[in-house]
Design a protein that fits this description.
Radius of gyration: 21 Å
CATH superfamily of the largest domain: ATP-grasp fold, B domain
CATH topology of the largest domain: D-amino Acid Aminotransferase, Chain A, domain 1
Oligomer: single chain
Structural class: alpha+beta
Bound molecules: adenosine-5'-diphosphate, magnesium ion
Largest sheet: 9 strands, antiparallel
């Protein structure tokens, strides 16, 4: 008999997990209202909040691909009994202030931040600080949405009107001139913690554009692993995945944010790692064996975003890049929307970077971002 996994959310993280699990005799259901999503092109077991009980009954275990889950769903005790990595990380991730407060309380290093009760206070604090800052909405933010970068007093004045009329809470962070950004993805099953290969991540306007498996010092790798493992324990996660995004500046490594799930920066593992982050998730929540998956080759990924139509011509150009592998999520194109990604593999890091640049130029020929 097949194993049955329920995923809250039907986007690409669910979709890629389904593709990975299908070859291992795992059946899936997703809970989503959207038909314009990857999972709905792959499976028929689509449930909505109205059929939540059926979704729970179908599933041996349940996980989630995002954290902005309707709190009503989390009142279902039968669902909570099957849910990994649990409800605590969701509560923290639904509010950036709670997440940052938690990290501070347990002495995880973050950039200095300030809490504000509404937009007016955010404006006042930002004016007084006279520093370079990022003002972040506390909920529903992703891919740089709801974030306002303040380098000069002019930048602040431009959003003054918006801020002082806003009753929302905001998180203010000091702007960090990091050397680079990395992320580390870990899987846990009770006492065993394993790590995916680490990547360097390049964002443009707050959104991940590409990443690659770089050469990291042992010191950075060990520091990042120690932080992720302590965070897994502090969050009391027993089974599942935790991704942590870091800023690295000289010898210091700051947590930017965490995500209790598979992550965009782990997509490369589908092609360059002994087993992927999606398989790691399934192994972790289904009590299957875990070991540290090594890199088979160097690799990386470029996101396909925005108003891009995948016609045969574009496909041909991408496929001409040796080692490039296309993943298209079958969503409708929209400004800023992630529609797919291209993984590349290469014998060494320099070659990987060259291939990433080629793919990036194919996808974004008129934008000076690659
Ligand atoms: P999201 O939830 O949208 O991923 P993040 O808080 O991770 O939001 O911010 C997106 C990106 O914006 C980061 O990966 C980083 O490149 C940049 N960023 C965020 N906070 C800061 C900061 N305090 N200083 C400098 N850059 C930042
Ligand atoms: Mg982020």
């Amino acid at each position: 008999m097949s194993i049955k996994v329920g995923i809250i959310g039907g986007g690409q993280l669910a979709g890629l997990t389904i593709l990975e699990g299908a070859s291992k005799n795992i059946d899936f259901a997703v809970l989503t209202d959207s038909r314009d999503s990857m999972a709905s092109h792959l499976i028929n077991n689509i449930y909505t909040e109205d059929s939540l009980d059926e979704f729970v009954a179908f599933s041996d275990v349940i996980t989630y691909e995002f954290e902005h889950i309707n709190p009503k769903i989390l009142e279902n005790n039968k669902l909570l009994d099957k849910l990994y990595p649990g409800v605590k990380p969701i509560e923290l991730k639904q509010n950036r202030l709670k997440e940052k407060r938690f990290l501070k309380e347990y002495n995880f290093m973050t950039v200095p931040f300030y809490e504000t009760k509404d937009g007016k206070e955010a404006y006042e604090i930002a004016s007084e600080l006279k520093k370079e800052l990022i003002i972040k909405s506390i909920s529903n933010g992703y891919d740089g949405k709801g974030q306002y970068v303040i380098h000069t007093s002019d930048d602040l004045e431009k959003i003054k009107e918006f801020l002082i009329n806003s009753k929302d809470e905001f998180l203010i962070e000091e702007f960090c001139y990091f050397d680079f950004e990395i992320s580390l993805i870990a899987g846990i099953n009770n006492d065993i913690i394993v790590y995916m290969p680490m990547t360097k991540n390049i964002h443009k306007n707050g959104v991940l554009l590409y990443n690659f498996t770089d050469d990291f010092s042992m010191e950075i790798q060990e520091k990042a692993k120690a932080i992720v493992s302590r965070l897994l324990k502090t969050l009391n996660i027993k089974k599942g995945i935790l991704t942590v995004e870091f800023f690295v500046k000289a010898k210091d490594i700051y947590i930017n944010e965490f995500a209790p799930r598979v992550h965009n920066t782990g997509h490369h593992t589908l092609d360059d790692t002994e087993y992927s982050q999606f398989e790691l998730l399934l192994r972790a929540i289904l009590d299957l064996p875990l070991y540290h998956p090594s890199l088979k080759t160097q690799g990386g990924m470029v996101n396909i975003m925005g108003n891009i139509q995948l016609d045969k011509d574009l496909m041909k150009h991408i496929m001409l890049v040796e080692g490039a592998k296309l993943y298209w999520y079958r969503k409708s194109p929209r400004e800023g929307r992630k529609l797919g990604h291209v993984n590349i593999t290469a014998k060494n890091i320099d070659f990987a970077k060259t291939k990433i640049k080629s793919v990036c130029k194919i996808l974004y020929p008129h934008q000076n971002i690659c």
